[in-house]
Amino acid sequence: MELSYLSRTPGLNTTMIGKLVLLGAIGAVLAQSSQDVAILNESRSADVSGKYDFGFASEDGTARVETAGDDGEVSGQYQYVDADGQNVVVKYTAGKNGFQDIAQLAPRKPDWDLKRDLAPRLERLERRTQRAIAELIRQRLRRDQRPDDLVDAVHAAAADGDDDDE
Fold it and tell me: pLDDT digit string (tens) for 103-124?
């Protein structure tokens, strides 16, 4: 009887009800399938003056350490592994200046694909640089010498280069 009431409700039909039930069932399964993460180590201490420190590290790379002094200043750090697999470390302090954090990404591994993509461009840049240097040398020779001397200078430079190869 209650189902017939829902099916008579405007905008709500049995197909939609079936989808909602299925969605709820999937959500329940996903909620139960999350795995517990083991704590690898843990420490805690506190005293009556308000000083404390604690820390833990878990098997999934998550960790946190925090210390509070007599003056109420708190400092610590936490770390986790982000979606890209990078280890993110955040150091922080909290006190009279408020909460201040500094995120530090661990160094990334070299991206060899990027290096392969850049290699042809770097070679092209090297060739262009060498041509530009040669053109500057030619311009100086033209400016400083007569045209006959220019040909002799180029031949002399070529001969010196041939001697170096041997």
Answer: 665 566 666 777 777 888 889 9
- Give the chain's radius of gyration (CA, Å): 35
Contact 76, 92 (CB under 8 A): yes
User: Which regions of the chain are under pLDDT 50?
Assistant: 1-7, 9, 12, 33, 164-166
List the structure tokens of 121.
Answer: 């461009």
Asked if 13 and 5 touch (Cβ cutoff 8 Å), the reply is no
The answer to whether residues 53 and 97 belong to one domain is yes
Distance (Å, whole) CA 102 – CA 21: 45
Which domain range does residue 96 map to?
39-105
152 and 124 in a common domain: yes
Residues 101 and 58 in one domain: yes
> How many domains are contained in the chain?
3
Q: How many other CB atoms are there within 10 angstroms of residue 147's CB atom?
A: 8
Single residue among 105, 122, 157 that ends a domain in this structure: 105
Rounded Cα distance between 142 and 155, Å, is 14
